[in-house]
Amino acid sequence: MSQVFGTNTELVIVDAVAVLLAGGLVAFPTETVYGLGADATNAQAVARIYEVKGRPIDHPLIVHISDFKNLKQWISDIPEYAIGLAREFWPGPMTLILKRSKLAKDFITGGQDTVGIRIPNNSLALGLLEAFHKLGGAGIAAPSANRFGQVSPTTAEAVQEELGSYLSDTDLVLDGGQSAVGVESTIIDCTGELPRVLRPGAITIEMIEEFTGLKVSNSLDTKSIDFKQENIRVSGSLENHYAPKAKVFLDQRPLEGSGFIAHESIDTPDGVIRLAAPKSVEEFARVLYTALREGDHQNLDSIYIAQPTGDGLAIAIRDRLSRSAEGR
Ligand code: TXA
Ligand code: MG
């Protein structure tokens, strides 16, 4: 598999667009995590995403676009509040779930009548999306660039580690450095009268409520949504996701020989391997997945995490961690 480092961005983008147009895969940085991209209108290309990820075929993909103007072709309906959210928070770490148009085929939506759309806030991603659009591309379908159920990659090296052996020579991995946010986008279901958060992220419930003046239905406790009954498939809402190989323990005293991730104000007990000591909740999100990976590099059996408390981004971190720790 070939890899391109972002030395000459323009050339890299020209290459990457050619790969996409030929039905190949391009992993690219976003501000949340790295995505594994394919032309969202090419069934065969999208099928390879599922193969490379080892992901069940009925899990829908997010379509990434470069500009609000390109949204219309993907959707058949959009409530006022969603237009407002798009204008306020895009480009940014937010995915809107909207009624799909005919362009959003079953191979993107997992057969649902909705489609997830996002404009990422990362210069390399936006450059790629714009160049792809100029050559007639409608959008880039991209899940996180990890094997199904594993930790999302926040660097190009982590993408290589996850998928390198599954990608082909003609696929590309673009290197845009470390993802600035570090946890996946907030997913907001905008098909009802009120917005509903399906996956918490850096665009927080408080931000959505403050901006729209609407009550956001608190389905953050995703266990309160019956995904099966409602026929919503959010794979990231499955238990036992975002999981490293090491066993994850939350808010317990770390045992000797195990890994430890906690705010820098919390000391490392004797004999425990400190994997990260973030100074803020933002830094916690940014370094978390790299720290989990580091625990696996060191072949640790267990990683203990003192979770950040409070609202905002801490909710997203606890959401992912509860799933990394679940059922193991
Ligand atoms: O930050 C992100 O969102 C990253 C970057 C690459 O954009 N992408 C990402 O994609 O996290 P993925 O596929 O790993 O997670 C997207 C989640 C999945 O759980 C999927 O089931 C859900 O979004 N999803 C996509 N389309 C949906 C839809 N129409 N209805 C409900 N959930 C949907
Ligand atoms: Mg994912």
The overall pLDDT average reads 92
Largest sheet: 11 strands, mixed
Question: What is the percentage of strand-forming residues?
Answer: 15-25%
Q: Helical element count?
A: 10
- How many β-strand stretches? 15
Distance between the terminal alpha carbons, to the nearest Å?
33 Å
By secondary-structure content and strand pairing, the structural class works out as alpha/beta
What's the helical proportion of residues?
A: 25-40%
Order of SSEs: EHEEHEEHEHEHEHEEEHHEEEHEH
Shape: globular
Task: Output the radius of gyration.
Answer: 19 Å
The kinds of small molecule bound in this structure are: threonylcarbamoyladenylate, magnesium ion
Low-confidence parts, pLDDT < 50 over ≥5 residues?
222-229
